[in-house]
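Submission checklist for the structure archive. All mandatory fields must be present; incomplete records are returned to the submitter.

[x] Identifier: Pyrroline-5-carboxylate reductase
[x] Organism: Pseudovirgaria hyperparasitica
[x] Residue count: 312
[x] Sequence attached
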Amino acid sequence: MTNNDLTFTTLGSGVMGCAIMGGIMASLIELRSGKEIPQDDTPSHLPGKFIACDMRKEAETQVQNALGHYKLPLTTLTNENLRGTKEADIILLACKPWAFKDVLGAEGMKEALAGKLLISILAGVTAEQIEEFLYDNDASAQYKCHIVKVMPNTASMVRESTTVIAARNPPLPETQLTLATWIFSRIGRVAHLPASVMDAATALVGSGPAFVAVMLEAMADGAVAMGIPRAEAQMMAAQTMRGTAALVLNGEHPAILKDKVCTPGGCTIGGIMAMEEAGVRGGVSRAIREATMVSSKLGQGVAGSNVNGTWR
Ligand SMILES: NC(=O)C1=CN([C@@H]2O[C@H](COP(=O)(O)OP(=O)(O)OC[C@H]3O[C@@H](n4cnc5c(N)ncnc54)[C@H](OP(=O)(O)O)[C@@H]3O)[C@@H](O)[C@H]2O)C=CC1
Ligand SMILES: O=C(O)[C@@H]1CCC=N1
């Protein structure tokens, strides 16, 4: 038996705040309709009420436009992070990475967070950084919140995210970890990894949709150049990526998959040779390494600073 008596608040309701709330809402609707059946690991208390906080008034309209159609209890607040946090059981920190001290350092915030689950999706900011900022490394601080760093991606909106949950030492209480895992497994696949690889995880799964979109667009452009109409080319490129991903998730090794497509003397190996000449492999893997390094600097930035290219 589950109760939808928890309130889920986002501090920052932009692209990701909306995507994650949207994914959770879609999942709750499926649970209610019986399309999804509660599993053994379904927590007894689930979110049922949502509060979207932002500092921009326009965010209220954007949130309502994106999520209003789910018809679940949803409140939008502008410049009322404290109220949203006081009313919350679970708080999603989804502002810009360099804004976290402004958000969490506000008067009364520490008290409002006490005992609650604080999920941070901020690139480049560790759970330890947040803990140190809030409690100044005071291990005996009363009524701490439980902080977990996770890295989802924008496909949360369509429940196809890949989310990495960072391990904590000491670990999160079991109930809180189960709840965080449940939330993100409703909106895609979840991996648990050491905190030390979270910047690489940010590059791979957080930034990944942008990298894949560039490749998708390039494939579609090539097809348009060769006469296929744009809409069809885009759909065909996307479905080809989905099919390839499904084969790999089904256990096929990417190198074997590639070899199977390359008929000897055929057109695919011709195309692969062109990709190798252009250094596509090196360029793509370099993008992951570059994004990892930039991510590692994002939590140290201040608003308006640009850490791209500053780490060398
Ligand atoms: N976009 C993505 O695909 C992913 C992003 N992330 C992480 O998620 C976080 C959010 O990213 P994203 O959704 O893209 O960013 P957005 O800019 O779309 O959303 C962040 C929102 O938070 C608002 N905000 C800033 N300061 C405050 C504040 N003090 N109180 C309340 N709201 C505030 C911003 O307002 P304003 O615009 O005025 O600053 C903005 O509306 C980032 O930390 C990013 O690293 C993680 C994974 C993937
Ligand atoms: O580009 C960024 O900084 C964020 C983090 C991962 C995806 N978008």
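[x] Structure attached
Curator remark: The pocket of NDP (ligand 1) is lined by residues 11-12, 14-17, 53-56, 59, 81, 94-97, 99, 102-103, 121-123, 151-154, 206 (CB under 6 Å). The mean pLDDT is 94.
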